[in-house]
């Protein structure tokens, strides 16, 4: 865990019990005083109600009727589902989600003013013998409903037990898919956390590689010259030009050259090895990660 000496850590919640997991917390969160005194906080993974004791939790598990997040299932591919939850309709759920997320976020985030946001909840389906299904919480991202900026994601979390399995990339990819469907360019809200930045850098790199490979296949470039602008790459990916440049830099294909005559800097893309780019473009599939299938939205 990235938790360092968190001197501001005033509460004593050391871990949360959710589903069958005990997850060590990284940062503090403003749960009501009487909940913040516990070492272990019990959280129902379906309604996100938080509880003081194991006893109350077990009693709740018996009577809680929820087996999935609220809202509409807008994507399903195999065992993976995404649920769109309106912060105005499911206020308590979204507030509880934000409080939970804050345990793994250093920055100040919102907890109570959830109405202006939509939450996209990622779940893994478990089919029970009796024919019913349960949808286990894996992670989420939130998005501001109306915003004048390019932000397409305000906060993202993968529960630590599910991290490093590609779910972060999945959620990021999904946020850009939504932007493309709105015919907009998107970027995550700043500042990014350390893990957020590492993950986005990795995402932008792979995404740019995928777009370049896609273009190459479309154009069938025999002479290895691809005539493409930054705007083209943004339109295809849904990423802002700034983020495209960051991705191209990570890919080490972005080159600058001083034009002596005009004293202007020229920028271009130079690909020395398509094999390398193709290998990066296939990284998620190679690692067995879930990839977004746009036709399932
Ligand atoms: N150490 C090194 N590299 C990492 C790490 C890590 N701990 N975590 C992610 N990466 C990099 C790796 O390149 C990784 O790919 P790889 O595992 O194949 O090498 C890549 O990022 C993506 O990893 P994912 O498995 O797709 O991402 P994950 O599901 O772990 O989620 C996330 C990433 C959401 C940032 C997660 O770490 C998290 O929830 N952190 C706590 C909350 C947070 O900081 N959120 C971002 C705040 S900023 C914002 O919301 C706008
Ligand atoms: Zn519940």
TrEMBL record:
This is Histone acetyltransferase. It comes from the Eukaryota. Belongs to the MYST (SAS/MOZ) family. The active site is at residue 189. Residues 8-297 form the MYST-type HAT domain. It is found in: Nucleus. Signal peptide: none annotated.
């Amino acid at each position: 865990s990235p938790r360092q000496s968190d001197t501001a850590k005033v509460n004593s919640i050391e871990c949360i019990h959710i589903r069958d997991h005990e997850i060590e917390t990284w940062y503090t969160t403003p749960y009501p005083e009487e909940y913040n005194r516990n070492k272990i906080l019990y959280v129902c993974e379906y309604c996100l109600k938080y509880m003081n004791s194991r006893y109350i939790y077990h009693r709740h598990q018996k009577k809680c009727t929820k087996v999935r997040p609220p809202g509409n299932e807008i994507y399903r591919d195999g065992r993976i589902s995404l649920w769109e939850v309106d912060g105005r309709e499911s206020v308590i759920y979204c507030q509880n989600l934000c409080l939970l997320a804050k345990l793994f976020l250093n920055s100040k985030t919102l907890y109570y003013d959830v109405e202006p946001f939509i939450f996209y909840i990622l779940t893994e389906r478990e089919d029970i013998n009796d024919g019913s299904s349960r949808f286990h919480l894996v992670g989420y991202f939130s998005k501001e409903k109306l915003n004048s900026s390019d932000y397409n994601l305000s906060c993202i979390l993968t529960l630590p037990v599910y991290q490093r399995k590609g779910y972060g990339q999945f959620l990021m990819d999904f946020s850009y898919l939504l932007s493309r469907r709105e015919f907009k360019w998107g970027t995550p809200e700043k500042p990014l956390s350390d893990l957020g930045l590492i993950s986005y850098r990795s995402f932008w790199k792979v995404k740019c590689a995928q777009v370049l490979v896609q273009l190459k296949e479309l154009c069938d470039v025999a002479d290895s010259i691809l005539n493409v602008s930054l705007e083209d790459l943004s339109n295809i990916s849904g990423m802002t030009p700034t983020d495209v440049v960051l991705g191209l830099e990570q890919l080490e294909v972005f080159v600058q050259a001083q034009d002596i005559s005009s004293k202007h800097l020229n920028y271009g893309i130079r690909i020395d090895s398509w094999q390398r780019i193709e290998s990066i473009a296939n990284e998620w599939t190679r690692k067995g990660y879930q990839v977004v299938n746009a036709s399932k939205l």
